[in-house]
Specification:
Number of strands of chain A: 12
CATH class of the largest domain in chain A: Alpha Beta
Largest sheet of chain A: 7 strands, mixed
Family (chains A, B): Belongs to the class-I pyridoxal-phosphate-dependent aminotransferase family.
Protein name (chains A, B): Aminotransferase class I/classII large domain-containing protein
Strand order of the largest sheet of chain A: 2-8-7-6-5-3-4
Largest interface: A-B, 110 and 110 residues
Number of domains of chain A: 2
Number of helices of chain A: 17
CATH superfamily of the largest domain in chain A: Type I PLP-dependent aspartate aminotransferase-like (Major domain)
CATH topology of the largest domain in chain A: Aspartate Aminotransferase, domain 2
Keywords (chains A, B): Pyridoxal phosphate
Domain Aminotransferase class I/classII large (chains A, B): 84-467
Helix content of chain A: 25-40%
CATH architecture of the largest domain in chain A: 3-Layer(aba) Sandwich
Order of helices and strands of chain A: HHHEHHEHEHEHEHEHEHEHHHEEHHEEH
InterPro entries (chains A, B): Aminotransferase_I/II_large, Ethylene_sulfur-biosynth, NHTrfase_class1_PyrdxlP-BS, PyrdxlP-dep_Trfase, PyrdxlP-dep_Trfase_major, PyrdxlP-dep_Trfase_small
Shape of chain A: globular
Structural class of chain A: alpha/beta
Oligomer: homodimer
């Protein structure tokens, strides 16, 4: 494939002049079925009865509807240039042109007659599971080599987590997650499985320290006192929304916490290959998979490895959110794999995506080039966005992984409450850009933003111009 | 595209000499995690606790595990020539070469930058929903034109039905289906939603008559007496496993039955475009979508159209089971669409499949040619298989739609019970071929087979040779 000669050269097929500098300022366009409150729609409904479980919808439905409304107004250079540019979502358009060219070219070699059938497993193809095992073994040094049958795949981490938590939690049971955290968990682990997400606020300065688990100790007791049983703890490594890798000591603290309370430990490692250089973090730890740790040896304490399950997705590291391919890797718990097998066919990976990603993983030179190119562009784009915010008085929380960074805007905004933060989010939408405000990630104080920077540069710069408009309107 | 010049000319890229006539006779190769009984595995498990809902698995898990074992040993001309040829599953390999060539060629035009993102809706793309609406409006004469927002898509009818029944049924509630019926319903509508599938045995001679609903009247009362509430009725039109279209009178009888008992009516129309000529059925009704019927006008009785929901999938009519693209079309019930929207992101269609199928639907000349080619090959292949069974004393149940036919082997087998029928199924597996035996479809008497004929001819003939071996071994 014809990769750009320099790793840091950006694709400029879409020139800055092609994008409207004075955008229309569209309001999110909701699906016509989701106008007004759900409870009002239910009260007005006189048709044949719907199930109680659907009528008693969890609060997460509001997030699901909002997400759909934003998708429906999303900026597209060709079809919707006046749409909202979404810096509040983890999409990576730094490699779009390269991947479109690559996938279009290789499909004829990648797609087999078997891909038009149900394939050779209820879960994704054995070809894909083998390629994922190789990916893990060749890049993340697992303590025990990953085997293809350690893996169950599904259409995105969203689906995989939905099924996985149902294996551990009965409705109402709790899973603990350090806050701030990815807001999608409140949909994907609640909407069907009806789990209780316990967001555990951890101060910034302890978020990447073993002491973060002290807050979990408090939370688990607090929920137990309310009669809620905690069954699992989730680790996002690298962390979302901070965009940072964990050191070994903190990872081990998670493992010991899970062991102490007999919990399942889900390690969400979606950004494993999206680690990049930040000159302000010369001593940043590399990414370490939980599967790479010899926990008993490192800690001198027992650890039941049946409780450890890794979730991985191609969406982030390979910029293919739309492909919907993710995996659970559980190396020591065949009963969990068997439970997932019972419903694997309900979340079967689509074969063209299965074929294309397997092909890429097996095409090692291209795989390595694309990963390196992605990391270089992430570093470049992150530096660009850090600089932009610093010039405006924000304090970026230093990051070295993922598609986004948190920026501390407390000295700029002086928000007195979350209501004011929400008002700013609406001003951004009026200006044609979406940014994640801290409260969406269960942040304890107002004034923080999560900003996605893994955006094709001309579009990123347009988004930042729109954000400037929103900031100016705040001063007026 | 370079379609074969004659519609009935079969692709012979795989010559008969390429396939092993003396197959190895492999036993199904189970996933290593699913060896032995689930209850034994649970008893032996000493790891961190799994949820009660997962431990108390429905009986359907046995079917799910068996399906996976069969997939793992499936015949593949290149990678597994000694594998099982599966005539017990609805896969269509009559157009494999044409579709592989087509999709490989058009991906570069079909796939857009937006396909690498989450896209422009929580459900499948607006491009796909628009193409499905057009498909319906241009081919199936809906009473009210289908709009893109009447549609929710998901990764296969399996996933779509799982979510749809959860909207209508609380755990334990019943859905009625005429038996024999597709055995996958017992997995996809039970495994997660925990619905009760009520298989209503209807004699052959009434299966396509309005009197079939009399059996439903009995069943609904019987289950009500047991304290089970029925919330929905399912119609498979064209019918699976009979492979036959319904006349208008029977469709209307389903509608009136649903109205009378205030049930949701799910019309599974997966084989809508797979209707073919059978010279023995000169008066076979054409396929009629439930959406095409003016039920109130036709019957002179009220009908609440909020209860009507159609399920469609591309798997069958387009021979792409692996793509995982299906749709619910609900034209008059925004609350149902809204409920599905809350979990649509958990079953998002994969973008390469979304892009390829949208492209095909919009490429009208190719679409029409492929549908016609498929129907011609189905007719040819069905005639071939009817002839084969008739020569051996079986009585094929005349069919005009779908990928399979039921054949009455009672005069050949003289099975005294289902145990003997099951023993024959195992003999078939020993010979390297899978056929569906009647009991898998909840057939009331032993001695019937469901045989898939939509198989590339050289492989089909090899499968029939293997079946002959199984029949001979029965006589010995």
């Amino acid at each position: 494939m014809s990769l750009a000669s320099s790793l840091t050269t950006h694709v400029n097929s879409l020139a800055i002049s092609d994008v409207p500098l004075k955008p229309r300022t569209p309001a999110p366009k909701p699906n016509p079925v989701s106008v007004g409150a759900w409870s009002d729609a239910v009260d007005a409904y006189a048709g044949p009865r719907l199930s109680k479980r659907i009528i008693d919808v969890p609060d997460s439905h509001v997030t699901a509807e909002k997400l759909d409304a934003i998708f429906r107004t999303t900026y597209d250079g060709e079809s919707n240039p006046g749409g909202l540019i979404n810096l509040g979502i983890a999409e990576n358009s730094l490699l779009t042109q390269e991947y479109l060219e690559y996938y279009s070219r290789v499909l004829k070699d990648a797609l087999t007659p078997g891909d038009l059938t149900y394939g050779n497993q209820s879960s994704g193809s054995s070809r894909l599971h083998t390629a994922i095992a190789d990916l893990w073994n060749e890049n993340f040094s697992p303590l025990t080599p990953v085997k293809p049958d350690d893996i169950v795949t599904g259409p995105g981490a969203t689906s995989v987590l939905d099924q996985l938590v149902a294996v551990f939690l009965d409705p109402g049971d709790a899973i603990l997650i350090a806050a701030p955290h990815y807001n999608g968990f409140n949909v994907n682990m609640v909407a069907r499985s009806r789990s209780t997400i316990v967001s555990v606020p951890v101060p910034n300065e302890e978020a990447f320290s073993p002491t973060s688990l002290d807050y979990f100790e408090t939370a688990i007791k607090e929920y137990a006192a309310k009669g809620v049983t905690t069954r699992a703890v989730m680790l996002c490594s690298p962390q979302n929304p901070y965009g940072r890798t964990y050191d070994k000591e903190t990872l081990l603290a998670y493992a010991l916490f899970a062991e102490k309370h007999d919990l399942h430990l889900i390690s969400d490692e979606l950004y494993a290959l999206s680690v990049y250089d930040n000159p302000n973090m010369p001593d940043a730890p590399p990414f370490i998979s939980m599967l790479a740790l010899d926990i008993e040896k490192e800690t001198g304490k027992p650890f039941d490895s049946r409780r450890l399950h890794v979730v991985y997705s191609f969406s982030k590291d390979f910029g293919v959110n739309g492909f919907r391919v993710a995996a659970v890797i559980s190396q020591h718990n065949p009963l969990v794999l068997r439970a997932l097998l019972h419903t694997a066919f309900l979340m079967k990976v689509s074969s063209p995506a299965d074929a294309l990603l397997s092909y890429l993983l097996n095409d090692k030179p291209t795989f390595r080039k694309m990963v390196a190119l992605n990391q270089a562009r992430l570093a470049d784009s992150a530096a660009h966005v850090r600089d932009w915010f610093e010039k405006r008085g924000f304090k970026p929380f230093q990051s070295n992984a993922g598609h986004f960074m948190m920026v501390d805007g407390r000295d700029v905004f002086h928000f007195k409450n979350f209501e004011e933060e929400r008002a700013f989010a609406h001003k951004c939408i009026d200006a044609g850009v979406v940014v994640g405000v801290g409260q969406s990630y269960h942040y304890a104080q107002p004034g923080w933003l999560r900003v996605t920077f893994s955006v094709h540069r001309p579009v990123l710069d347009l988004a930042l111009q729109r954000l400037d408009e929103a900031l100016k309107s705040l001063k007026n």
